Amino acid sequence: MTVSLIDVSTYLPGPPISADYYAQFADTDDLRDNVMFRAPRFRHHVAEDETAIDMVERAAAGLVERHGQDTIAGVDVLITHTQLPDMPFYGGGGGMAHRLGMKPGWVIDLHNGGCAAFVLGLKLARNLLESGEGRTAMIAVAQNAAGTVFDQKTIRCKAQAAVPGDGAAVGLITLSDESPILDVECRTYGEYAGDMTIAVDPPRKWWQPGPGEGCIGFTESKITKVMARGNRQVPEVSYAVCDRIGLKPKDIDLFVTNQPNRVFLRNWREALELPPERHRDTFDECGNLFAAGIPINLDRAISDGQLNKGDVVLMAAFAHAGDFAGAAAVRWGGR
After folding, report:
1. Distance (Å, rounded) from C-alpha 105 to C-alpha 263?
2. Residue 152 CB neighbour total at 10 angstroms
3. What is the mean pLDDT of residues 123-144?
4. CA distances for 210 relative to 149, 199, 204, 207, angstroms
5. Contact at 8 Å (CB) between 161 and 150?
6. How many CA atoms within 13 Å lie on the side-chain side of 56?
7. Does residue 204 register a pLDDT over 80?
8. Crossing angle of the two packed helices 262-271 and 220-245, in degrees rounded to 10
9. How many Cα neighbours within 13 Å face the side chain of 114?
10. Cα separation of 30 and 199, whole Å?
């Protein structure tokens, strides 16, 4: 049986926020000149009272408009990923299903996929539908850490705060040959799983009360390691998929990745021998969208005609400090 990614729909909260917003708070930061933290021109921030469930509902509006509420309500498998869950003890899948009018047989919240969660969701959805667990799946991702964690009063002055942006996306997957998922490669690098940490001053566990606000614990040494891993892992999983589908990476019609910074985007594109016009890049418009980066870039490429019917799109990303990476190829069937 063939499984297809037939559509994506996305949402960006609020008006664009310019780099000047962060410039007014800029403070002395040993990492300010690091290439990892060269700020995008714009990004979007989730509203103070806006939940991940709200974001996914707004992202799904395009699918409802194009495919009908009955199609969405009839989804058999819902796979979700939220960068900052609304509640720490459970994921948002149940609330998202209820808000969208679904009664799915499977609701699965993913955390380990990180920035590559959409690719992991594609693999999981394909496997479940192929095994007879339903005919339709939805992947829902929400990145909501920019206007929350990174906009805290004592964090927004750090170089890392100006890079993330918020957004949400949903993808619709069906048992059909309309827009087939050609291949998916997912790899876990468990040896790096503890390398992303939360830094709080004074130190405490993330759940303990205290005066300091938390951010990502970056150091020059950690950044060097993450850059090396990301530069290696994304091309590796991309080449693995291309080899199995019988295409050279340079012959891919469109390359869509997560977008941590401009250096990664350039290095990945060069590793696959692709010109800039075949690598979707919205970094200066949206910043680092984490897991929402791939589907939001894909949606924009479809909407403006960069991806056409019959084209092969390769999606690839790595997560966190390099503990997971994945790539997926789809022959796009048109919208």
Report:
1. 42
2. 15
3. 98
4. 15, 13, 8, 9
5. yes
6. 31
7. yes
8. 30
9. 24
10. 15
Phi and psi angles of residue 64, each rounded to the nearest 5 degrees, phi first: -60, -45
CA 18 to CA 42: how far, in whole Å? Answer: 4
Structure tokens at 261: 């910074």
What confidence category does residue 74 fall into, taking pLDDT thresholds of 50, 70 and 90? very high
Beta strands 136-143 and 77-82: pairing type? parallel
**For residues 10 and 258, what is the distance between their CA atoms, to the nearest angstrom?**
15
Distances (CA, A) of 321 to 83, 89, 221, 298: 15, 24, 12, 24
- pTM, 2 dp: 0.97
Instruction: Give the angle 277-37-157 at the CA atoms, nearest 5°.
Output: 140
- List Cα–Cα distances, 88 to 84, 101, 142, in angstroms: 9, 24, 15
Here the tokens at position 221 are 């040494």
Place of tokens 């990614």: 5
